[in-house]
Fold each of these.
Amino acid sequence: MTEQSRCWVGGEWIVPIGKEVAVMSPSDVTQEIGVMHYAGVDVARQAVEAAHQAKKAWASLTGAARGQYLFQTAAIMEQQLDEIAMLASLEMGKPITEMRGEVMRGVNILRYYAGEGVRANGSVIPSNESGVLQYTKKVSLGVVAVITPWNFPVAIPIWKMAPALISGNTIVWKPAEIASLTASRVAQAFADAQLPAGVLNLVVGKGSVIGNALVSEMDIDALSFTGSTATGQGIAAQCARRNVKYQTEMGGKNAAVVLRDANMERAVSAIVSGAFRSAGQKCTATSRIIVEREISEQLTEALQKAITDLYIGSAINPQSYLGPVASKAQYETVDKYVQRARSHAIVLAEGKPQVDPAQGHYVMPMLVSGVSSDDPLVMEEIFGPVATLLTVNDIDEAISMCNKSIYGLTASVFTQNLSSAFRFLDEAEAGMVRVNQETAGVEYQSPFGGMKLSSSHTREQGQAALDFYTQTKTCAIAF
Ligand code: NAD
């Protein structure tokens, strides 16, 4: 397979002339799957202009008409599901079975928001004067810059772009460098659905160049970003200075709390999935496992067995539960934590590969313990398949350990006790709190986002996304 990244600007496909990089599969670093062409700031500028030119006509369409384009894109993506999933698996290493699920999630999100074009979006407010009708309506923001990470190369862009588009905005999308081939395919689905020129523009390039230019100097009306906390905080500061409406979804250090009355089988399967699917590269991944002392040994043994049984192989092998991490840079970052675990912690379990790990960027799933609650393994986002087990005496200690984090994205508790469940739902400092469910996997029709340094306090997905991509206009008519 040889793909090339392209930019889509004002309805035209462009292959920018400039730096080219061969894209190698993280599952097999000798396999070239395509070529990425970095665009320069000039292309981003053209894209912003094209988005401005298209915005009036797009916002003037009825919601139903805008929705038809989303329905059409969904149908095309569903037809191409296997192809898109395969390309993404090859490009960033997510196992093919998971990747198919992700593309289907993208299709469902498109359909969900397509329907929003004909739903109520304002309210009537009684006036203090007679003969006055006072109401609100939600109107578009204008040109929205969308900056996305590589770990959900299809679903995250779509959960930003679908609500932005149905709300009447036009878009300039800057995907992560290592998901650029997939991004070009996703944009192609919108192009094949005959989305009018300039409504969606794709600019493939470096975050520090294209992303930074969009945020710092381009004429944008809003920005939606998902990525690391360090980058997100910088972006937030720049947007605040320019009074650009922004949304930053960032890192996590999510805890799964296992109480003594938990259904052990259920807890183990949810923890293994939360910690190790996508090789732990989810903002919602389970990274800390907090267990009551009484059942710590039992849980450890069950997790050890489950981890040893995991199938670790190439991302395109349908049997693989875990593939490689996404890139060399990602491998090096995660490996620092693996080395720390080996030197400062007790390694309770480590997976065994079914491939030659030297073939790609493979990190074995690892369960560690024996570190203090302020060790980097416990405090920092690893974004890889390494989870730390922490033992506590009771639910009080479990909750305070869970909340001892600068992040607050998701948290889970495993218990059969209703009081414990409700207490955790009330006291866990996280935007998404779950009982007897893994930390990852929040459904697309529900608000998604975090507390503390995980998010800029807005929410994505569901109806909440429509709040971000619109502004309220208050109208009054005397008659
Ligand atoms: P990243 O911050 O390195 O990059 C994210 C995006 O920002 C990329 O498109 C990148 O090119 C761009 N970028 C980089 N520097 C920029 C700059 N100076 N100005 C503008 N744009 C810039 O993150 P990543 O490595 O791609 O993704 C991993 C991170 O994303 C993890 O921390 C993870 O927790 C987080 N994440 C969060 C969520 C969530 O919803 N909270 C979801 C997925 C991933």
Amino acid sequence: MTLQIKSFDEYKDAYRRSVDDPEAFWAEQASTFEWREKWHTVLENDFITPDVKWFVGGKLNITENCLDRHVKTKPDQLAIIWEPNEVFQKPLRLTYKQLLSEVNKCANALKEMGVSKGDRICFYMPMIPQVAIAMLACARIGAIHSVVFAGFSANSLADRIKDASCKMVICSDFNHRGPKTIPVKEVVDEAIKMGCDSVEKVLVFQSTNKNVEWNPDLDIWWHDIVDRQDDVCEPEVMDSEDMLFILYTSGSTGKPKGVVHTVGGYMVYTCFTFKNVFQYEEGDTYWCTADVGWITGHSYILYGPLLAGATTLMFEGVPGHPDAGRFWRVCEKHRVNQFYTAPTAIRALMAAGWHEPEHYDLSELKVIGSVGEPINEEAWHWYDEKVARGNAKIVDTWWQTETGGILITPLPNITDTKPCFASYPLPGVQPVLVDQNGTELVGNNVEGLLCIKFPWPSILRTTYGDHERCKSTYFAPFKGMYFTGDGAKRDEDGRYRIIGRVDDVINVSGHRIGTAEVEDAINQHSGVVESAVVGYPHDIKGQGIYAYVKAHHEIVEEAHFRKEILDIVTKAIGPIAKPDVIQFVIQLPKTRSGKIMRRILRKIAERDTSNLGDTSTLLNPESVDELKEGAEKIFNS
Ligand code: PRX
């Protein structure tokens, strides 16, 4: 059994052991899983190249650990509860035995369609059980899944399909989200027409009886091929360091990069963190509201919970449908014990109905989590008073796509909680704060750039097809350390508080958006000379997107121009990247070497113009007053 820490002393002991002898600590955790062959070396640690390997030489299949292992001991325990979008629709329940059989059928179908070990399979799916089934089916046969959030545009989808030369796309016909029915396959069709020549098949799950365009050379209905398969599929024996999945995430430059996670370390770490952070006990029902298109869905809807033999709830809908009580009604209905969501959802629900949670029985909740962005004090206290109500503890969990699992978090009833603090590192995690020069800031009461100085098992291994980018983004900035891109404070007792990104990444409703990506999209408009995008505080989204746009000519119809820009961004990236504010400018503030002074733009967008710093070195200092005036007009309108 994976170690489950139960007291502060046990936490301190585990932490000390994990630092004194990380290899022994993680070997102990790894030995609780089923391996076809044991590893010969626990860790190969090269943080420079980088080249990190865990459980080297080990052979396994992660789905045997997620499914077969539990089928042997508790076949009839629920693995997945699926709560559909509509309240009148019945939830679907899958036991471990049923899930294994569905996964095997899908795995056999993939094989029949010519998929084999190492092939990349792109997913563009809503939150339906088939997404979990198909992801596990890939892992069963050694194919690599690359899940793309179904809110991204055809352009973004095409970029990701091409980057990984995916052989197949798995999608649904439509997606039910709140009151909307969104055409999913249509987007896939559009993406494929953008030069996705590697795609040989599109597997389509039918969730409505609406018509879709059909290309018989490419498209296959799920029910035509999966349903008739045998429900036994021998798992592919994988190397511990074989790829499990690719997940794209935005950075400060260029196109999103494909973060690569491998089988063995990811398995050990997601299970360990799930059991400890959520203190999951046999019989509990756990619910994470994330979408499987993000890392939270991968690690804490699917892999972590199933590895731990838990019952994991999947929700198809959105928090506000049909009303602001939906989350709490689901908690009450399924007697949820652990609930995990994002600050943006907490803020939206808080705004929609301050007292709403009081109408529901939430007494079964033991742990309630937050992830994806800094949680503000007001939201933290509301979550504590209205949802936790003295029964549950809040865990503010800090981690990233690249880290694979949670790194810094309170442990419920074990370590103390302090509003807005992710608090202490989990065993195996060695955070450090450094200054701009990479000098470690020792002691407490310090603030700096957050780095991790020793590998944990689920650290990213590379960025797909471009190892150099992995090195330059994460390992080159501070030698011998993994750089997170976040700034953090360490308080007088050693607790961490994450402040936010220090690079050109905006965290919009917990989604990472690169400013460069949005600028590239805006600049596609023929009327735009240049643009600069920054983040600014937003009541619900955490950060909003503020775009400064310089046009070629005098703008005649501003509203029309604005709409065209929004449409271009939606088309290039997806609606989540649409700027909340567009300010048309005569000129952008530039240094003498021609660089845009983003610091000034950020301050103006944040409405904090009292101290803009030294603007005299600008090439065009007069631009600052123009910008301030323009912003005032927008704020007052
Ligand atoms: O800035 C941090 C923020 O989200 C970033 C990672 O985003 P992503 O890779 O999309 O993964 C999100 C889900 C794990 C981080 O660099 N972030 C994540 N969790 C927190 C957070 N910021 C503050 N507090 C958190 N608990």
